Amino acid sequence: MAEAAKRIYTEFVQVDAPRQINIDCETRHEITNSMSQPTLSCFDKAQRVIYKLMKKDSYPRFLKSEIYQVLLEPSDAS
Fold first, then answer.
1. Domain that holds residue 44
2. How wide is the angle at C-alpha 47 spanned by C-alphas 11 and 17, nearest 5°?
């Protein structure tokens, strides 16, 4: 489990990670501190932060996007 947690941390959480997620510095700091002895729940707060951001920002923008609106148009291939 520690190896998997470190891989997730390195890929997504640490500052300048290649696929860094958008979380606040407090959450990032808590995760960093937990890496010495990671638990099953060490990324739970980050998950809640990301879901909240998606719900309030990313998903509503997607629903308004042109690409989604095109998908909603009825198809002529009947």
1. 2-72
2. 20
